User: Which sequence fits this backbone?
C-alpha cells in the first residue's frame, strides 16, 4: 500500500494523495459505576437463568443512569418521552467531555474544529446532535457537520469512513467523530429474557476521534487510514434490532442468541476483502481493535480470525470496565492502545465493529 502511494506521488504533475490520520482520541463516561451483582440486587432479579447472564458476561462494572426509586423503593420503567429526554441530556454531557478530552490531546481548541460528525443509536433528535453540540459548546456555526443515527454499534467505523473522506478533501483541517451513547436511555425494566440479555450488556459512554489529513505542514503523528471494508449479512438482518414494543409502549432492543456465531463466521470474509490487493497477510497485522460487543462475540471473532487474547486485550478490558458502549467501544480500545505506547512506525492495524443489519465494518490503518 505504501509503495503504491509513493509511486503515484512520484509521477510528474501528480500531487500525492491526501491521507487522513487519526491524531487524537478522548473518552468520557457519566452516571453511576455499578457492578453486575449490585445491578441484579438493585433490580431484584432472582431468576437463576437471568442471573447467570449477568454474572457470566465478563463485565465487572458499567456506568448507568437509572430511574430513581419511587416511594416504595421500586424503580419503575420510564416512558419513552422521559427516555428521549435522558438521551439528549446524557449525550450532550458525555459528548462535550469526550470532545474536550480529544482536543486536549492534540493541543487544539473548539475554534479549530471544521467538521463534526456525531454518532448515536440510543435516541433520536431533530435537529441532530451535531447541531445541539455546536450550540451548547459555542462552536463556530460555520462548522460543517453530519449525523449518523440508528446504525448501531458498527456506526463508529461508518463515521470514520465519512470523516476520512472529508478530511482528505480538506488537507490540514480538523474533523472530529463523536460517538455518544446513552444506553441507559434504551433500557427496559421487565422480567423477559429479551430484556435481560440487553440489560446485562450495555453501558453509557462517549468517545471522540480527531482526524487531519497531511497538508503542507509536517504530518502529525498518528495512524493513516488506508482502506475500508463492509459486509451486510442480509440473512441475519433482524438478528439485532431496536424497534417498537406495543406491550411496553416504547422502543426496545433485541439481540438474537446466535448473533455472536453469525458475526464470527463472517469475520474472515471481511478481513480477507480488507487485505486483498495490499500484499498483507493477517499475520502482518500488529494491532487489532475490535468492538466490545460481548464475551461470546469477542470469543467468536478470536476463533474465526485466529487471534489471541493478547491481540484483543484492550477489547476485553473495555468490556470488563464499561460493558458494551455501542458505537464508541472501539475508540475506548484505541485510547488504551495509545496510552500503552507500544505502536511503532510501519505497524499495521485493523479496526473492527459489528452491529445491526447484521453488519461488519473494518478499516486498515498504518502508523
Assistant:
Amino acid at each position: 500500500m505504501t509503495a503504491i502511494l509513493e509511486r503515484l506521488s512520484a509521477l510528474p504533475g501528480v500531487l500525492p494523495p491526501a491521507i487522513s490520520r487519526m491524531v487524537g482520541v478522548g473518552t468520557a463516561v457519566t452516571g453511576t459505576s455499578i457492578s453486575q451483582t449490585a445491578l441484579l440486587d438493585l433490580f431484584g432479579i432472582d431468576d437463576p437463568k437471568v442471573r447467570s447472564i449477568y454474572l457470566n458476561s465478563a463485565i465487572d462494572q458499567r456506568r448507568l443512569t437509572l430511574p430513581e426509586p419511587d416511594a416504595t423503593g421500586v424503580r419503575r420503567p420510564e416512558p419513552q418521552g422521559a427516555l428521549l429526554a435522558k438521551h439528549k441530556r446524557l449525550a450532550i454531557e458525555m459528548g462535550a467531555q469526550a470532545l474536550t478530552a480529544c482536543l486536549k490531546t492534540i493541543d487544539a481548541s473548539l475554534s479549530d474544529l471544521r467538521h463534526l460528525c456525531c454518532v448515536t443509536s440510543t435516541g433520536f433528535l431533530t435537529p441532530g446532535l451535531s447541531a445541539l453540540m455546536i450550540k451548547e459548546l459555542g462552536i463556530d456555526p460555520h462548522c460543517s457537520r453530519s449525523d449518523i443515527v440508528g446504525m448501531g454499534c458498527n456506526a463508529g467505523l461508518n463515521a470514520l469512513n465519512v470523516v476520512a473522506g472529508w478530511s482528505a478533501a480538506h488537507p490540514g483541517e480538523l474533523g472530529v467523530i463523536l460517538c455518544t451513547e446513552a444506553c441507559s436511555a434504551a433500557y427496559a425494566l421487565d422480567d423477559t429474557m429479551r430484556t435481560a440479555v440487553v440489560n446485562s450488556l450495555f453501558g453509557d459512554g462517549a468517545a471522540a476521534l480527531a482526524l487531519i489529513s497531511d497538508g503542507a505542514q509536517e504530518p502529525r503523528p498518528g495512524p493513516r487510514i488506508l482502506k475500508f471494508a463492509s459486509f451486510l449479512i442480509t440473512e441475519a438482518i433482524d438478528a439485532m434490532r431496536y424497534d417498537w414494543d406495543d406491550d411496553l409502549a416504547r422502543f426496545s432492543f433485541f439481540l438474537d442468541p446466535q448473533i455472536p456465531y453469525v458475526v464470527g463466521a463472517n469475520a474472515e470474509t471481511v478481513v480477507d476483502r480488507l487485505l486483498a490487493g495490499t500484499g498483507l497477510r493477517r499475520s502482518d497485522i500488529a494491532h487489532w481493535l475490535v468492538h466490545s460487543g460481548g464475551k461470546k462475540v469477542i470469543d467468536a471473532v478470536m476463533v474465526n480470525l485466529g487471534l489471541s487474547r493478547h491481540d484483543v486485550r484492550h477489547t476485553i478490558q473495555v468490556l470488563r470496565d464499561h460493558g458494551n458502549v455501542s458505537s464508541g467501544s472501539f475508540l475506548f480500545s484505541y485510547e488504551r492502545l495509545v496510552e500503552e505506547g507500544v505502536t511503532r512506525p510501519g505497524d499495521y492495524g485493523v479496526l473492527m465493529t459489528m452491529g445491526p443489519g447484521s453488519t461488519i465494518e473494518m478499516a486498515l490503518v498504518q502508523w
Q: What stands out?
A: DSSP finds eleven helices and 13 strands in the chain. The first strand starts at residue 20 and ends at 28. Confidence is low (pLDDT under 50) at residues 11-15. Residues 125 and 265 are 35 Å apart (CA to CA).
